[in-house]
Amino acid sequence: MADRGASALSLPDDWPAHPDPILALNRMGSFDWDLDSGLFHMDARAHEIFDIRPDEYDGDPASLSVRVPPNEAIRLDALVAQAIKDGSENYGAYFRMRLRGGDLRWTHTQGYIRRDHTGRPRRIVGIVRDATDELDDLAARRDEDAPDDARRDQTNVVQLTTAALAHARTVQDVIDVLKDTQGLTHLGATSLVMGLVEAGRIRLIAEGPEGSFVPGTLVTRIDEPYPMSEVVRTLTPRFIESPDEFARGYPVLWPHLTDLRITSAAYLPLIVQARPIGAMGLLYSDRRGFTPEERNILVALGSSIAQSLQRAMFYEQEKDIAQGLQQAMLPRTIPSVPGADVAVRYRAATIGGSLGRDIGGDWYDLIPLPGGTPSGGGRVGAVIGDVQGHDTHAAAVMGQLRIVLRAYAAEGHTPATVMARASVFLHELDTDRFATCLYAEVDLATGVVQVVRAGHIDPLLRAPDGTCRRVSVPGGLPLGLSAEFGSLEYPVGTIELDPGHTLLLCTDGLVEQPGADLDDGMLALAAFISAGPSDVRRLADRLIDVAEERGGDDDVALLLLRRRGPDGTRTGNRLQQHVAPGDPEALSEARHMIRTAVRAWGARDRSDEIELVADELITNALMHTEGAAIVTLRALTGGERRLRVEVEDSSSALPRRREAGESGVSGRGLMLVDLLADAWGVEARGGGKCVWCEFAVASPGRP
Question: What is the phi-psi region of residue 382: left when phi exceeds 0, alpha when psi lies from -120 to 50, beta otherwise?
C-alpha cells in the first residue's frame, strides 16, 4: 500500500536534532537517512517499532533486512526511488515487517526528501509507526458489511496477487509472492504446497509449513494416490471440506498431516493452454467447506498462478541458455604468464534487486603475444571490454569481438592497430551495438605497458606499498562508433610497471553507482584497493565481494596483473637506438652503444660475437627494407643471465637462408647468427617484424 499524500508532515530545518515531542506522544519513531553516506539513523522509538536493539543496528539500512521481508523491501525501494526521480517532496507507504518472534506486523512510514540547490536529493527525514490498530479498525469496519465485502475482498486478493505475480521472474519469486503477500492470509489459508510436472512426474517445489514434509513426496508419479496427482490427471480442482473427507480420500497422505490440524484444503491444477504444468494446494486450519463464490475465486487464482509460473519457467530456461552462452564466450582458462601474477573475475548483474542473474556483454581476456623470452620475460595483451546491452545478443557480439581482438593482437599488430581493426569489425557486423574497450600490451621484461582506450574507463595502478592511483590514458571513440564517424585514431599511452606493481582493469559496473559521480567512484575504488591485500587473487575476490554486496543492474569484469619482483625475470638495463637508412652516423652510434653496453654489463668475453651478430641484423634490415631499423639491447636476469638484441623493421617479409657461392659476398648472414647466438627467432610486429637473438652470459657480476 502506497500513500503519496504525506504533505501533513511538516518538519523544521534542524529536525531530527530537536524532534517534536508530539511524535513521541503518538508513539511514532523518527529517522534521518543521509543519502550521501548511506547511513540511516533512528531514534529509540523507531528501534522499538522495528523490534531491533541499538547494539544490533550499525546504521546500514541493509541491517533492517532481518525485519523487512524481501518483497516488501523491493516495493519500498521502488517507491522511494520513484519519489526521488519524479521530484516529489514526500512519500508514504504501508509495509509489513517481521518481528523477532516471526510474526508479521503492519507498519506505516512517511518521508520528506530534502534536496540541495541543484535539486539533488541529499537527505530523507521522516517517521515510522505501528499501523496494526489502524488496519485492524479498517478490517473490522469491512466485516460489518460481511457478505458483499468478503466477496469483494477475495476478488481484490486475486487482483492484488495477480499484480504482484506480474513482477515475478523466477519460480522462486512466484513462491515468495504467494507466501509473503497478504493474499493467503486474507483467503484464510494456513500454508501452501506446490509441485511442477516434469517428465511425467510431479516435483515438489513448496512443501508447506516447517515440519510438514511427507517422506517420499519430493517426486511422485501422476498415478499415485495424492491430491496433487489427482488434479493433474483430471485437470479438475479438488476441494476437501473436512478432516474425515481428507482421511477417506487420501489414506496414504492423511496420517502425516494430522499434527497440522488441517480442517479443509483446496487443490488446484495449474493449466496453461489446456496442458497441466503443475498443481498447488491451499491448506486451512480454521474453516470447513467452500462456497461457490470462494471456489470460483480460487480457480481464478490458480489460473493466474499458472500463467506466472509458465513465464518464470520460460525465463529460467532462457537465462540458463544465455548464461551458458556467456560462459562459453568468456575465456575458459587464463594462461600462466612468466614474470606476472594474474587474476580475473566476472560477476553477472542482479535483476531488479532479486536473486536472479542477468546476462551482459562484459568480458576480459589475456593474450600471449610474440616476443616472450625463453628466460621468462613474457609479453601479453590484457583486454577488458563492455558491449552495450544485457541480453543474448550482447553476449554473442562480445564473443565475436573477443575472438577478433585476440586474433589481431596475436598477429603482432600495434595496440592502436588492434583497436582500430576491432572497431571496423564491429561497425561492419550486422548489429547496432557499440562497445567500450581497453587494451594494454605488457612487456614484462622491460615493464613497459602500452595502453589504448576506446571509450572505456581508465586503468588503476597499485604500488608495492599499497598506494593506488588512477592512470589517465588518452582515448578514442567506443568500438563501432569510431568507424561510423570516420575517426579511427587511438592514441597510445605508456605506463611503467615496476616489479611489485599491479595493473587493474575493470568495467564500469565496479565503479558506477546510481546518483554518484564517476570520478568519485574511481577515487573510492582506489582507496579500497589501497587497503586491500597485495595478493591479486585475494584482492580480486574482495572486489567482487563488494560488487556482490552492492548488487546493481550492471555486470562486472575484472583483470589484475602484478609484475613479480626479484624472484621473477627482470631487466638489468635496456637501451634502444633508431637507425635511419642512409645514415652512417646512426649506424656507427648503434655499434658503439652495443660495444660499450656489453662490456659495461660484464659480458666482455662475448662482446665481439654480440657486436658482430647485431651489426649483421641491422645491416640486413637496412638493405632489404625501405624503412628504418630500431635496435634494442636488453640485459635479462632471473635465472640464467642473458643479453638480448632485437632489430625491428617495417617489412613483413621474413628473412631466409641463402647459399653463398665461393666468391659470394652475401648469403652468410643467418648462418652467422645461427652459429654465434644461443637462441634467435623472428616475430611478427603488426606491419613489420622483429628479429631477435640471445646470448648467455656466464659472468655473475650484476650489470
Answer: beta
For the beta carbon of residue 167, count every other beta carbon within 10 angstroms. 15
Reading the block at residue 29, the C-alpha cell is 519513531
**How far is residue 389 CA from its own chain's centroid?**
13
The reported pLDDT for the residue numbered 451 is 92
HSE-CB at 253 with a 13 A cutoff on CA atoms is 21
Nearest to 383 by CA among 507, 522, 548, 519: 507
**Cβ pair 512, 557 in contact under 8 A:** no
Encoded amino acid at 359, one letter: I
Q: Kindly report the number of other CB atoms within 10 A of residue 117's CB atom.
A: 5
Whole-model pTM: value is 0.49
pLDDT digits (tens, 9 = 90+) for 108-159: 999 999 998 888 899 999 899 888 888 777 766 665 655 555 566 566 666 7
CA–CA dist 280, 309 (Å, integer):
11
Q: Are strands 435-443 and 361-368 parallel, antiparallel or unpaired?
A: unpaired
What pLDDT was estimated at residue 542? 92
Q: What pLDDT score does 568 carry? A: 40
343: enclosing H helix or E strand: strand 340-347
Cell 568468456 identifies what position?
330
- Asked if residues 509 and 554 have their Cβ atoms less than 8 Å apart, the reply is yes
Instruction: For residue 105, give the nearest of 49, 48, 41, 155 by alpha carbon.
Output: 49
pLDDT in tens, 504-549: 999 988 887 766 788 888 999 999 999 999 899 999 999 988 888 8
**Of the candidates 621, 633, 616, which has an alpha carbon nearest to the alpha carbon of residue 581?**
621
* Other CB atoms within 10 A of residue 693 CB: 23
